[in-house]
């Protein structure tokens, strides 16, 4: 169920490199641990947010910081105060930032950079107005340059638990079967591992159980389809969920609103308040 006072706008702009724009005010919401295929570039307009990235907790307050969450790294997020927080997200694909930079971003997701924050704010303002694609691409180019500047200054992450072979093989298997799905016993048989050992290895390596990872991947795909105008009932079966009720339950936990309400905001022309 969508919390009272929640407002959300989401759309896919015709700007190369931007997979989704997402504006939200959450008064009471907790994201479950999940991953994205894209980079999540976020600014706060007010309030505070608390989040874990790869099992290390971080926080941000007010409108001075920029949050950059890399693809493939589990994270959650939650409101801190009764007033919640207002945020604006850009989901950027690897044409803006290559995924091999994710290891540099994982340990330092909060950036204090007034120039970068101002440029992101200006891009969001541009994206609201249809027909300003050239300006949006220009502003994104400067943001990309600034993000590369920050990532170049960070140390690459040393190889560690994320290189666990069995967990990596299960992740590849889940990625290849996101839509069709598979049972735990089938996965265990394919990978020649005991089911509980497989689950433990995955959770120790990636910070969330394999079923949660798979659900997050499906919700990620559902968002894209909904913004393309596909009906929620059709989206549910397309992404591998049992039915629309199943989609509604998981989507609301991950995004903070139902698929139908999320889809109604997709023009980016207005904010829907619940």
Question: How does this structure look, described?
Answer:
It is a single chain. A hairpin with a 6-residue loop joins strand 1 (7-11) and strand 2. The model is unreliable at 269-274 (pLDDT under 50). It is built from ten helices and ten strands. 42% of the residues lie in helices and 23% in strands. By secondary structure, the chain is of the alpha+beta class.
Strands, helices and their partners?
Elements: E1 7-11, E2 18-26, E3 30-34, E4 39-53, E5 56-61, E6 65-69, E7 75-79, E8 85-92, H1 102-105, E9 110-112, H2 114-127, H3 133-153, H4 165-176, H5 184-191, H6 195-206, H7 210-227, H8 232-238, H9 244-255, H10 259-264, E10 272-273
Antiparallel strand pairs: 1-2, 1-10, 2-8, 3-7, 4-5, 4-6, 4-7, 4-8, 6-9
Helix pairs in contact: 2-3, 4-6, 4-7, 7-9
Compute the gyration radius: what is it? 18 Å
Tell me the fraction of residues in β-strands, as a range: 15-25%
Mean pLDDT over the residues: 90
**Share of helix among residues?**
40-55%
Oligomeric state:
single chain
Order of helices and strands: EEEEEEEEHEHHHHHHHHHE
Structural class category:
alpha+beta
Unreliable sequence segments: 269-274
Largest sheet: 10 strands, antiparallel
Number of strands: 10
User: Whole-Å distance between the termini?
Assistant: 10 Å
Number of helices: 10
Shape: globular
């Amino acid at each position: 169920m969508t919390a009272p006072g929640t407002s959300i706008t989401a759309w896919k702009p015709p700007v190369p490199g931007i997979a989704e724009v997402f504006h939200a005010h959450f008064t009471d919401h907790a994201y479950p641990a999940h991953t994205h295929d894209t980079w999540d570039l976020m600014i706060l307009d007010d309030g505070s947010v608390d989040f874990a990235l790869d099992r290390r907790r971080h926080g941000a307050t007010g409108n001075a910081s920029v949050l950059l969450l890399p693809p493939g790294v589990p994270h959650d997020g939650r409101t801190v105060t009764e007033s919640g927080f207002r945020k604006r997200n850009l989901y950027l694909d690897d044409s803006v930032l290559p995924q091999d930079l994710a290891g540099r971003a994982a340990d330092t997701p909060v950036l204090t950079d007034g120039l970068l924050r101002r440029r992101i704010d200006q891009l969001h303002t541009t994206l609201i107005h249809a027909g300003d694609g050239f300006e949006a691409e220009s502003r994104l180019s400067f943001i990309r340059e600034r993000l590369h500047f920050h990532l170049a200054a960070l140390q690459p992450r040393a190889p560690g638990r994320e290189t666990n072979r069995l967990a990596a093989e299960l992740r590849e298997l889940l990625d290849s079967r996101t839509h069709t799905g598979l049972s735990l016993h089938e996965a265990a048989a394919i990978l020649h591992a005991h089911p509980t050992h497989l689950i433990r290895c995955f959770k120790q390596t990636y910070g969330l159980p394999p079923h949660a990872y798979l659900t997050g991947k499906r919700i990620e795909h559902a968002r894209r389809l909904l913004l393309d105008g596909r009906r929620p009932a059709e989206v549910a079966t397309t992404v591998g969920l049992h039915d629309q009720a199943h989609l509604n339950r998981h989507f609301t936990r991950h995004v903070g609103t139902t698929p139908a309400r999320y889809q109604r905001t997709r023009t980016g022309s207005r904010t829907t308040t619940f």
